[in-house]
# Entry
Amino acid sequence: MYTIKEATLGGITDAIRAKTHRSEMIFGANIQGEIASIQTGWPSIHTVAGVSPDSSNFDGAMEAVAAAMSFWNAKASGTISFDYQDGYGPIKPTNSDGTGKLSNANGAGVMDCSSYMGLVLRGMDYLSSPFAQITGANQSYRPQDITASTAAWAEQYFDMQPETADITYTADKYKTGDGQCRIISASDMAAYYARMALTFWPGERDAKPGDICFFYKTLDDGSLKYPDRFMGISHVGMMINSEKFLNITEYPYSGNLIVTSVDARPPYLYARPLYGATVNGAAAELTENGVDLIPAMWAGIPQGSSTYNGVSFVLSGKAITIGGKASSGFAKNLISNSCPLHLLPGTYKLSGFVNGTGSNTVSATHSMWGLRVYNADTGEGIPGTTTSSNGANTASRTPVYDIGGGAVFTVTA
# Structure
């Protein structure tokens, strides 16, 4: 029997914490398990070539953010509610017939964190996801029908894994329709991006919209709950700015699909996907006319038909038909300050929402109807230049309006 000095034991635990980037106290009984959990080599994952987190394309990142926000907006607008069930979702074949849960007994969409991020990173917004097809309670979905979109930023290689890949699920029921294994769990996603050298630790660089954030979970004795998973990772979300991330977890008071502050739940690890950089090139900022930043779902207006203050709305995707006459003035959110769109400094154009057919919109100072922009932190209107629907005149306005001719505004910080 050997006796280990306290200083030596302390050095061992300090080395473990430095290697794993975890800060919790390590109990003596857990040292062997902690050492075994240290990642000693690259996982065997099929990927496209990566260079570093700086090789990402920000246009693609913001498209991914818009896709992720569309699910939150679907919840906020009352179009759907979500039920968090760990280990369940339309991409996870947990039913006896090989299908996955789509809706619960109340008709709410069923998913966990990796189901949510798995859909988004495959290039799906809410309207193109299985959840938009829910018509009732206890519905199921064939996981094989979930495939990556053709968008350049979508992760095609999530569904192109060989049976020899170091991933969580390799049984036949988890495979694609053509027999490929899939990236499904949060830890698989972390391993996938780590294999491409796209991960980074908190403090190494500032998080940006579209970055993926990962978390681990420990038991009461301080040991990892999932020591056999890559780095023990058990949860995943997407950053909407440097301080907040979208994720789904068990929090029914706020509808389970929530925006969480990094102060309340600090991420363990980040990843910055390429987001189409292999096709469109690396870009740290948005390119001109590169991406539509408005999500396909709106926070304040549900899909389908609704009425408010005497005005009827028929919303189908982003196409809206409005009828009637308002009994009083009102505003509806396309994007909520509870789940805001983060814009880097630059100049932006708002256009295409208002058709400009009303006679009043030929004046750039028209205020009866339009789309306007506010600062989510302060509630103040953002100034800019409004162009009339016929393009004949402009006006400096706060908040800036799109009344049919477009509006231009600049974000400075």
